[in-house]
Amino acid sequence: MSRSALSHFLILSSSSPRFTSLSSRGASRGFSRVPPLGRRSFTPSGRDPRRFQCYCSVSVSEPADSETTSPSSARKRIVSGVQPTGSIHLGNYLGAIKNWIALQNSYETLFFIVDLHAITLPYETQQLAKATRDTAAIYLACGVDTSKASVFVQSHVRAHIELMWLLSSATPIGWLNRMIQFKEKSRKAGDENVGVALLTYPVLMASDILLYQSDFVPVGEDQKQHLELTRELAQRVNNLYGGRKWKKLGGRGGAIFKVPDPLIPPAGARIMSLTDGLSKMSKSAPSDQSRINLLDSKDAIANKIKRCKTDSYSGLEFDNPERPECNNLLSIYQLISGKTKEEVVQECLDMNWGIFKNLITDALIDHLHPIQVRYEEIISDPAYLDGVLAEGAARATEIADATLNNVYQAMGFLRR
């Protein structure tokens, strides 16, 4: 979803990011049982989609259907998106966006704003369009290059909703009833006030991924469960409608969808709250003090770091389970400064909190300032931003419609 014309604002490695696949099998081409994620088999009751705010997928160069190919599809494909809700913060940036920016140099990339996911809970209708544009501008400012990546708005590609409906017909209601997010949020809002979208949004998530024939989804170690429903649903549709059944209807047969596998990005990019080192930095946290927003002013950044939670131990160190806030702040400094963990250890080992807070404040301000400048340039040029989103939607529609047409055919619909 994010994209920026001036990627030189970010200091990124020129080498391709290293990801670890949890499976060595590559793309799923047949109908064998989906391998478990890690050491656990799929258990619908164990899924926790609460952090499905951003996701991205990498697909191998040979898509499930040759109709979806183009000259650029010889490269692996990444599809990624975030919700236009709340403020884009440091956790979003360090945990995902920097990886996307690096990946665009080696893969075919499509980044989108998942505005349809933003309406699963009450929201301000007057703010949705503005938030969508702001999100697009922020990600452009962060370094996504529109000559390498397609950027678009989810609702501008209607195939997302169409495929969601088709997938819904194959999704057991029990899988959705056991989703942890639905249980927690419906209990908090009161069952009578909860919309159906909160229950069915995981099917839309699956549609977002499967439309583009994704093979891999880079996720954090704590997010592997988010992919389970998509994997099982892809396999279920393949078994119900693919193979010989599809071929008898005039299709090519075989798998309709690829079954995506997770990839674990480099460690150390999970950014925690400034007020609680055991909780992830979040848009939905009630206190703005808990996060550094990408558009925070210099004074706001300085104030938040000054007031952030620390501890009374002497010296600074990584990986001490009794010092989660210390580990978090050192990790932020490491990622923002571009230094190695060993370099940060040597530099900060004997520092007190006062000196370190000044150090990390200066590093944050210096790193975020060019992003903020570029954001203002982009948001002040609506014609440019509209053009980027329209071009990206056209490219995404071309790919998504090819997948959608195959699904309609395999499910027996009258061809248009």
Automatic annotation (TrEMBL):
Signal sequence bounds: none
Keyword Endoplasmic reticulum: no
Entry keyword annotation includes Cell membrane: no
Enzyme nomenclature, EC number: 6.1.1.2
A single BP term in Gene Ontology: reproductive structure development
GO cellular component terms, A-Z: chloroplast; mitochondrion
UniProt xrefs under InterPro entries: aa-tRNA-synth_I_CS, aa-tRNA-synth_Ic, Rossmann-like_a/b/a_fold, Trp-tRNA-ligase, Trp-tRNA-ligase_bac-type, Trp-tRNA_synthetase
Catalytic activity: tRNA(Trp) + L-tryptophan + ATP = L-tryptophyl-tRNA(Trp) + AMP + diphosphate + H(+)
Region (Disordered): 18-46
GO MF terms, alphabetically ordered: ATP binding; tryptophan-tRNA ligase activity
Principal EC category: ligase
Cell location: Mitochondrion
A Pfam family that the UniProt record links to this protein: tRNA-synt_1b
Keywords on record: Aminoacyl-tRNA synthetase, ATP-binding, Ligase, Nucleotide-binding, Protein biosynthesis
Family: Belongs to the class-I aminoacyl-tRNA synthetase family.
Designated name of the protein: tryptophan--tRNA ligase
Record organism: Punica granatum (Pomegranate)
